[in-house]
Amino acid sequence: MVEPVERDSRGILHPNAGLRRFELTRYPPSPGVDRFVDRYWLVSWDLPDVHEQHVLVHPVVNVVFDEGPGMVSGVQTQRFTRRLSGRGRALGVMFRPGGFRPFLGRSMATITDQVHPVAEGFPALHPVEPALAEALAGDTGGAEIAAMLDDALAPLVPDSRQPSEDTTALAELAARDRDLRRVEDLAARGGVSVRQLQRAFADHIGVSPKWVLRRYRIYDAAERAARDESVDWAELAADLGYADQAHLTREFTAVVGEPPGRYARRS
């Protein structure tokens, strides 16, 4: 089930402030397409000035369309910033972890931290770009635009099960099961060696399993900070499997760009 942003804002830094500047709506993919796609999302804004929205991207590919050329964004390991100004809309398809691998046809590590035009990174979707751009520039409803993109993706979905789908299941298990804190534990749950798991993640997702586990821990910390004014950081560090509060503070600051206490106050 696709959760609304009010219940799941993971990855959107300072979501309360951001959602006063733009509207974010999510739509589910159709059966079959949902083997590889997590959701479609539509951002709308009408601003008198410039808003910079910082994002910690999930370990996934996003393909984004607006009034210009569509772009394929590989997994972004650093904080990503999108500048919004004037009035506009953007439609994205967020793939599941490893979900883009069958469409790319090569190791996902080859596009990590890279952005490519759709014509280059996903040429099979290039024909639908003009229709999507026209719909986004007009008054077509978000659900209808998402359905246009879903219809374009449906015939591209492979019939047979893909090797990357096993990796998708493990990455989503890492996101869902907060007791999984070590790569060795995740490998054991998948019935593979650590080395096999590392190779699969590099090939199918584009980042290491350690990176994925750490990213979801930071998501949890940021969500708590954004929603709870009285976070016990020492207790939260223990809950998330950090050695101590200092370890959480160092990692949070390095990834988010500010210490957790300051982030909580600003949120």
From TrEMBL:
Pfam families on file: DUF6597 (PF20240), HTH_18 (PF12833)
Gene3D superfamilies: Homeodomain-like (1.10.10.60)
Transmembrane segments: none
Keywords: DNA-binding, Transcription, Transcription regulation
Domain of life: Bacteria
InterPro entries: AraC_XylS_family_regulators (IPR050204), DUF6597 (IPR046532), Homeodomain-like_sf (IPR009057), HTH_AraC (IPR018060)
Domain HTH araC/xylS-type as annotated: residue spans: 165-266
Coiled coil: none
Alphabetical list of PANTHER family matching this protein: HTH-TYPE TRANSCRIPTIONAL ACTIVATOR RHAS-RELATED
Protein name: Helix-turn-helix domain-containing protein
Species annotation: Amycolatopsis tucumanensis
